[in-house]
Amino acid sequence: MKYIGTMVLMVTILLLSAPVTAGQDDPRLNQLFASLLKFDNGLAAKPVEDKIWKIWLENKNSPVQLILHQGIQAMNTGRLQHALRAFNEVVEMEPNFAGGWNKRATVYYLMQDFPASVKDIAQTLRLEPRHFGALSGLGLINAALGRHQAALKAFEQAITIHPQMRGARQHIKILKELLKGEET
User: Fold this and answer.
1) Is domain 21-183 annotated with CATH 3.40.50.1000?
2) What is the per-residue pLDDT across 166-184, written as a single tens digit (0 to 9) for each?
Protein backbone atom coordinates (compact mmCIF):
# COMPACT_ATOMS: atom_id res chain seq x y z
CA MET A 1 0.00 0.00 0.00
CA LYS A 2 2.87 2.35 0.82
CA TYR A 3 4.34 1.63 -2.65
CA ILE A 4 1.09 2.67 -4.39
CA GLY A 5 0.96 5.90 -2.35
CA THR A 6 4.55 6.70 -3.32
CA MET A 7 3.83 6.00 -6.99
CA VAL A 8 0.74 8.22 -6.97
CA LEU A 9 2.79 11.01 -5.39
CA MET A 10 5.56 10.62 -7.99
CA VAL A 11 3.09 10.63 -10.90
CA THR A 12 1.38 13.71 -9.45
CA ILE A 13 4.71 15.53 -9.17
CA LEU A 14 5.60 14.58 -12.75
CA LEU A 15 2.23 15.75 -14.04
CA LEU A 16 2.48 19.04 -12.19
CA SER A 17 6.00 19.73 -13.42
CA ALA A 18 5.45 18.75 -17.07
CA PRO A 19 4.20 21.29 -19.59
CA VAL A 20 0.48 20.63 -19.86
CA THR A 21 -0.82 23.37 -22.07
CA ALA A 22 -3.91 22.97 -24.14
CA GLY A 23 -4.56 26.20 -25.94
CA GLN A 24 -3.20 26.23 -29.47
CA ASP A 25 -2.53 22.46 -29.45
CA ASP A 26 -6.15 21.53 -28.84
CA PRO A 27 -7.42 19.15 -31.57
CA ARG A 28 -10.84 20.86 -31.60
CA LEU A 29 -9.32 23.97 -33.18
CA ASN A 30 -8.85 22.54 -36.67
CA GLN A 31 -12.56 21.93 -37.13
CA LEU A 32 -13.45 25.30 -35.59
CA PHE A 33 -11.09 27.15 -37.94
CA ALA A 34 -12.56 25.27 -40.90
CA SER A 35 -16.02 26.34 -39.73
CA LEU A 36 -15.00 30.00 -39.60
CA LEU A 37 -14.41 29.93 -43.35
CA LYS A 38 -18.01 28.87 -44.06
CA PHE A 39 -19.88 31.79 -42.48
CA ASP A 40 -21.15 34.73 -44.50
CA ASN A 41 -21.73 37.09 -41.57
CA GLY A 42 -20.09 37.95 -38.28
CA LEU A 43 -23.14 37.18 -36.16
CA ALA A 44 -23.23 33.58 -37.35
CA ALA A 45 -19.46 33.20 -36.87
CA LYS A 46 -19.45 34.66 -33.34
CA PRO A 47 -20.19 31.41 -31.42
CA VAL A 48 -17.33 29.63 -33.23
CA GLU A 49 -14.99 32.59 -32.62
CA ASP A 50 -15.93 32.52 -28.93
CA LYS A 51 -15.13 28.79 -28.72
CA ILE A 52 -11.72 29.40 -30.30
CA TRP A 53 -10.93 32.18 -27.82
CA LYS A 54 -12.05 29.95 -24.95
CA ILE A 55 -9.79 27.11 -26.09
CA TRP A 56 -6.85 29.48 -26.63
CA LEU A 57 -7.13 30.46 -22.97
CA GLU A 58 -7.33 26.91 -21.62
CA ASN A 59 -4.33 25.61 -19.78
CA LYS A 60 -4.36 22.27 -18.00
CA ASN A 61 -1.80 23.50 -15.48
CA SER A 62 -4.13 24.71 -12.70
CA PRO A 63 -1.74 27.31 -11.22
CA VAL A 64 -1.16 28.81 -14.68
CA GLN A 65 -4.89 28.85 -15.39
CA LEU A 66 -5.54 30.63 -12.09
CA ILE A 67 -2.83 33.24 -12.68
CA LEU A 68 -4.04 33.77 -16.27
CA HIS A 69 -7.59 34.32 -15.01
CA GLN A 70 -6.35 36.79 -12.37
CA GLY A 71 -4.39 38.65 -15.04
CA ILE A 72 -7.43 38.86 -17.30
CA GLN A 73 -9.54 40.21 -14.44
CA ALA A 74 -6.86 42.78 -13.61
CA MET A 75 -6.59 43.82 -17.26
CA ASN A 76 -10.37 44.12 -17.60
CA THR A 77 -10.50 46.42 -14.56
CA GLY A 78 -7.62 48.62 -15.70
CA ARG A 79 -5.02 47.29 -13.26
CA LEU A 80 -2.45 46.92 -15.99
CA GLN A 81 0.67 46.57 -13.83
CA HIS A 82 -0.99 43.75 -11.89
CA ALA A 83 -2.06 42.11 -15.16
CA LEU A 84 1.45 42.44 -16.55
CA ARG A 85 2.95 40.72 -13.50
CA ALA A 86 0.43 37.90 -13.84
CA PHE A 87 1.08 37.40 -17.56
CA ASN A 88 4.86 37.57 -16.98
CA GLU A 89 4.41 34.68 -14.60
CA VAL A 90 2.26 32.77 -17.08
CA VAL A 91 4.79 33.03 -19.93
CA GLU A 92 7.60 32.10 -17.54
CA MET A 93 5.74 29.03 -16.30
CA GLU A 94 4.37 27.98 -19.72
CA PRO A 95 6.57 29.45 -22.49
CA ASN A 96 4.84 27.32 -25.14
CA PHE A 97 1.35 28.62 -24.32
CA ALA A 98 0.29 31.14 -26.97
CA GLY A 99 -2.59 32.42 -24.81
CA GLY A 100 -0.20 33.78 -22.20
CA TRP A 101 1.94 35.56 -24.79
CA ASN A 102 -1.11 37.07 -26.47
CA LYS A 103 -2.55 38.36 -23.21
CA ARG A 104 0.76 39.95 -22.28
CA ALA A 105 0.93 41.50 -25.77
CA THR A 106 -2.52 42.97 -25.14
CA VAL A 107 -1.43 44.51 -21.84
CA TYR A 108 1.66 45.98 -23.47
CA TYR A 109 -0.59 47.42 -26.20
CA LEU A 110 -2.87 48.99 -23.60
CA MET A 111 0.22 50.45 -21.90
CA GLN A 112 1.31 51.75 -25.33
CA ASP A 113 4.55 49.78 -25.13
CA PHE A 114 4.29 48.85 -28.79
CA PRO A 115 7.77 47.29 -29.20
CA ALA A 116 7.11 44.86 -26.32
CA SER A 117 3.64 44.11 -27.66
CA VAL A 118 4.99 43.38 -31.15
CA LYS A 119 7.62 41.06 -29.67
CA ASP A 120 4.95 39.08 -27.79
CA ILE A 121 2.68 39.04 -30.85
CA ALA A 122 5.54 37.49 -32.81
CA GLN A 123 5.89 34.77 -30.18
CA THR A 124 2.12 34.21 -30.16
CA LEU A 125 2.16 33.76 -33.94
CA ARG A 126 5.15 31.40 -33.77
CA LEU A 127 3.14 29.20 -31.44
CA GLU A 128 -0.24 29.70 -33.14
CA PRO A 129 0.03 31.09 -36.69
CA ARG A 130 -3.79 31.17 -36.93
CA HIS A 131 -4.12 33.65 -34.07
CA PHE A 132 -6.37 36.20 -35.74
CA GLY A 133 -6.48 38.24 -32.52
CA ALA A 134 -2.70 38.65 -32.52
CA LEU A 135 -2.77 39.61 -36.21
CA SER A 136 -5.45 42.18 -35.51
CA GLY A 137 -3.39 43.57 -32.64
CA LEU A 138 -0.40 43.83 -34.96
CA GLY A 139 -2.59 45.71 -37.42
CA LEU A 140 -3.72 48.14 -34.74
CA ILE A 141 -0.15 48.81 -33.61
CA ASN A 142 1.10 49.39 -37.14
CA ALA A 143 -1.83 51.70 -37.86
CA ALA A 144 -1.12 53.68 -34.68
CA LEU A 145 2.51 54.04 -35.76
CA GLY A 146 1.52 55.21 -39.24
CA ARG A 147 2.75 52.01 -40.88
CA HIS A 148 -0.33 51.68 -43.02
CA GLN A 149 0.97 49.07 -45.46
CA ALA A 150 2.09 46.78 -42.62
CA ALA A 151 -1.23 47.34 -40.84
CA LEU A 152 -3.15 46.44 -43.99
CA LYS A 153 -1.12 43.27 -44.43
CA ALA A 154 -1.81 42.17 -40.84
CA PHE A 155 -5.57 42.73 -41.14
CA GLU A 156 -5.65 40.95 -44.50
CA GLN A 157 -3.86 37.97 -42.94
CA ALA A 158 -6.40 37.97 -40.11
CA ILE A 159 -9.38 37.78 -42.47
CA THR A 160 -7.87 34.90 -44.43
CA ILE A 161 -8.18 32.96 -41.17
CA HIS A 162 -11.40 34.54 -39.89
CA PRO A 163 -13.21 36.19 -42.83
CA GLN A 164 -16.00 37.60 -40.66
CA MET A 165 -13.76 39.07 -37.96
CA ARG A 166 -15.43 42.09 -36.46
CA GLY A 167 -13.80 45.36 -37.42
CA ALA A 168 -11.09 43.88 -39.63
CA ARG A 169 -12.84 44.64 -42.91
CA GLN A 170 -13.54 48.21 -41.75
CA HIS A 171 -9.87 48.67 -40.86
CA ILE A 172 -8.89 47.31 -44.28
CA LYS A 173 -11.22 49.75 -46.02
CA ILE A 174 -9.87 52.72 -44.05
CA LEU A 175 -6.25 51.68 -44.58
CA LYS A 176 -6.74 51.27 -48.33
CA GLU A 177 -8.16 54.79 -48.46
CA LEU A 178 -5.23 56.14 -46.45
CA LEU A 179 -2.74 54.35 -48.70
CA LYS A 180 -4.48 55.68 -51.80
CA GLY A 181 -4.24 59.19 -50.35
CA GLU A 182 -0.55 58.68 -49.55
CA GLU A 183 0.17 57.74 -53.18
CA THR A 184 -1.15 61.06 -54.52
Assistant:
1) no
2) 899 999 999 999 999 887 6
C-alpha 175, offset from chain centre: 23
Sequence-ordered list of residues with C-beta below 8 angstroms from that of 116, at least 6 positions apart, any chain: 105, 108
Global pTM reads 0.85
pLDDT at 95 over 50: yes
Give the separation between CA 42 and CA 162, rounded to whole angstroms: 9
* Cβ pair 116, 80 in contact under 8 A: no
Cα distances from 165 to residues 43, 63, 115, 158, in angstroms, run 10, 32, 25, 8
pLDDT at 14: 31
Q: Quick check: 97 and 91 in contact, CB under 8 A?
A: yes
Return d(Cα 23, Cα 151) in angstroms, integer.
26
Strand stretches in 25-173, DSSP E: none
Reported as a single tens digit per residue, the pLDDT across 26-40 is: 999 999 999 999 999
